[in-house]
Specification:
binds NADP nicotinamide-adenine-dinucleotide phosphate, 7 strands, single chain, 7-stranded parallel β-sheet, 9 helices, 2 domains
């Protein structure tokens, strides 16, 4: 299947690590140009050096996306460097475990970390997305649907991303801009590794327990499997798909464990 993505330009937030890195790499292999908007300079330079040392297809802009000024710069620099924007993958974020007990300030910071930049980037990119009839993919989480028990800010942000997916799909219908969400559940990434290692006395046992509850194949979803769905949604092969929530999780959310 030809995805027709050659020479198209995409922005991938957090696009040099974990799920974002797999999305960037897949787009690169399809011949697309990618602006990686993230905050870790060294890791990002190394990542680009490995894949595209000439920097003809990959470029980065480093800064914290919590600042809406930074989001505006991401859009301006992408247009200045590559000339257009055919799509945005809102991916940067982390489960920061802000609980009901942590209070209003921590809750607001969590929304800053996980939610506001999803809106800000799309807001500033709007004229370019309308011109290109672009595609937006919001990386959300299973937590948006299931909750987790100790992460109010993250759960609120991830659910709000689903609300925005439906809202923007409706708002941008007439412009031919499609908007979809991808919901991972368990994907081994640098962030996930850190969470396991820092949160549990026996990380290996915890990992085995989690994996044993994933219905399809008793394994985690790979970052590549999330990337494949995301890149399909960016492409015109999904031209009649908008406002959808794609749950790529080996049946974790919907094939209830009581079935087995
Ligand atoms: P990851 O390995 O930490 O990669 C995320 C990247 O985003 C990192 O490079 C991080 O920067 C960057 N980033 C985070 N906040 C940023 C900010 N404010 N400004 C600029 N860059 C920022 O995470 P991941 O596991 O691939 O997660 C990617 C997305 O998938 C997140 O939205 C996450 O909620 C979602 N998700 C993941 C899983 C999973 O199992 N892994 C499950 C459900 C949902 P640093 O390099 O500085 O850390």
């Amino acid at each position: 299947m030809n995805l027709h993505l050659k020479d198209k330009t995409f922005i991938v937030t957090g696009g040099s690590k974990g799920i974002g890195a797999a999305i960037t790499q897949t787009l690169f292999e399809e011949g697309s140009k990618v602006m990686i908007a993230t905050r870790s300079r060294e890791a990002t330079e190394q990542f680009i050096d490995q894949i595209d040392p000439s920097r003809s297809q990959l470029h980065s802009i480093i800064g914290d996306l919590k600042s809406s000024d930074q989001c505006r710069k991401v859009i301006e620099e992408t247009v200045a460097y590559f000339g257009s924007i055919d799509g945005i993958v809102n991916n940067a974020g982390m489960n920061d475990g802000v609980t009901l007990e942590d209070g209003p300030e921590a809750f607001r910071k969590s929304l800053e970390l996980n939610l506001y930049h999803y809106y800000d980037l799309v807001h500033y990119a709007l004229p370019y997305l309308k011109t290109s009839k672009g595609s937006i993919v919001n990386i959300s989480s299973k937590v948006a649907l299931t909750g987790q028990g100790a992460t109010s800010g993250y759960a609120a942000a991830k659910s709000a991303q689903l609300g925005l997916t439906r809202e923007w799909a409706a708002a941008l219908l007439e412009d031919g801009v499609r908007v979809n969400a991808v919901l991972p559940a368990e994907v081994m990434t640098p962030l996930y590794r850190k969470w396991l290692d820092n949160s549990f006395e026996n990380p290996a046992a915890k990992e085995a327990e989690i994996v044993s509850k994933i219905p399809l194949g008793k394994r985690m979803t790979s970052a590549q499997e999330i990337a494949s769905m995301t890149v399909f949604l960016l492409s015109d092969q999904s031209a009649h798909t908008t406002g959808q929530f794609m749950i790529v999780d080996g049946g974790y959310v919907h094939l209830d464990r009581s079935l087995t």
